[in-house]
């Protein structure tokens, strides 16, 4: 069983989340909704989790294919439902940027495998009705 601990540490909505290994992050709400900008918004963390989950899969796949990844980053944009509580992610788009000695077809295959088969966060979002889309950009260096 996985366990995390969440503790209110600052004013109204300032929380710290800690995992079993002692890693932590800070969370808060926006200033407009009564927060103090102490940390990340929980829904932003979900997008970050998507990027981390996918990134681990993608790099593992490309390394097995002997692709030389010098640089890798993602830009993740999401749109939430309007005027609903809870307000779920309606759509999320990811731009994947690679640099290195990488065949574009292999990068695209690695991304597709992650987003459509391996990444648990992607599947969690999909089951909640979120439309996931992505684009792959490879710069050979």
Quick recap:
The protein is an alpha+beta fold and 141 residues long. It folds into 2 domains: 4-33, no CATH class; 42-140, 2-Layer Sandwich (GMP Synthetase, Chain A, domain 3).
Structure description:
Helix content is 33%, strand content 38%. The protein is built from 3 helices and 6 strands; from the N terminus they run βββαββααβ. The protein has helices at 42-64, 104-118, 120-127, and strands spanning 4-10, 14-19, 24-27, 68-80, 89-101, 131-140. The strands form 2 sheets. It has a 3-stranded antiparallel beta sheet, with no helix packed on it. It has a 3-stranded mixed beta sheet with strand order 4-5-6, with helices on one face. The longest helix has 23 residues, at 42-64. It is globular and about 50 Å long. The chain starts with a strand and ends with a strand.
User: CATH topology of the largest domain, anyone?
Assistant: GMP Synthetase, Chain A, domain 3
What is the string of SSEs from the N terminus onward? EEEHEEHHE
Name the overall outline. Answer: globular
Whole-number count of domains:
2
Calculate Rg over CA atoms. 17 Å
Q: Report how far the terminal alpha carbons are from each other.
A: 43 Å
The helix count comes to: 3
The CATH architecture of the largest domain is 2-Layer Sandwich
Give the averaged pLDDT, no decimals. Answer: 97
Q: What is the structural class?
A: alpha+beta
Report the count of strand segments.
6
Helix content: 25-40%
Estimated share of beta-strand residues: 35-45%
Main sheet specs: 3 strands, antiparallel
CATH class of the largest domain, please? Alpha Beta
* Weakly predicted, low-confidence segments: none
């Amino acid at each position: 069983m996985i366990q995390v601990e969440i503790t209110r540490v600052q004013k109204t909505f300032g929380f710290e989340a800690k995992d079993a290994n002692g890693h932590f992050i800070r969370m808060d709400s926006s200033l407009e909704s009564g927060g103090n900008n102490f940390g990340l918004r929980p829904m932003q963390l979900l997008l970050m989790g998507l990027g981390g989950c996918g990134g681990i899969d993608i790099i593992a796949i490309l390394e097995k294919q002997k692709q030389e990844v010098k640089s890798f980053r993602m830009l993740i944009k999401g749109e939430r439902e309007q005027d609903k509580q809870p307000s779920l992610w309606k759509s999320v788009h990811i731009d994947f940027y690679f640099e290195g000695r990488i065949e574009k077809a292999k990068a695209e295959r690695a991304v597709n495998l992650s987003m459509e088969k391996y990444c648990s966060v992607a599947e969690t979002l999909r089951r909640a009705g979120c439309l996931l889309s992505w684009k792959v950009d490879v710069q050979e260096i």
